[in-house]
Specification:
This protein is mainly α. Helices cover 82% and strands 0% of the residues.
Length: 103
């Protein structure tokens, strides 16, 4: 169950990062409220996963899902540029997540 909580927490990190971008510096109410709700839920699920998973594993995987997910959302939905270097960096983060999960 801890891994499911952790994965969901990582997905919610992507949601709050995207909502933060969409809030335009907290000047738009709806995205700001979505960001706050997703942030609270993400932290809550992360804390539940940390009941059984090690701190380092939980935090690395949570931030990795968020970082790679935000990168994908950035180019997919926001039209941000994708260079070879940025793609390789994202793949290295994914490799680190997989390695941590296997360890």
């Amino acid at each position: 169950m801890a891994w499911i909580f952790l994965f969901a927490a990582g997905l919610l990190e992507i949601v709050w990062a995207f909502a933060m971008k969409e809030s335009q510096g907290f000047t738009r109410l709806a995205p700001t409220l979505v960001m706050l709700a997703a942030m609270v839920a993400s932290f809550g699920l992360l804390s539940l996963s940390m009941r059984t998973l090690p701190l380092g594993t939980s935090y690395m995987i949570w931030t990795g899902i968020g970082a790679v997910g935000a990168f994908v959302v950035g180019f997919w939905f926001l039209g941000e540029a994708v260079s070879l270097q940025r793609a390789v960096a994202a793949l290295l983060i994914v490799a680190g997540i997989v390695t941590m999960k296997l360890a």
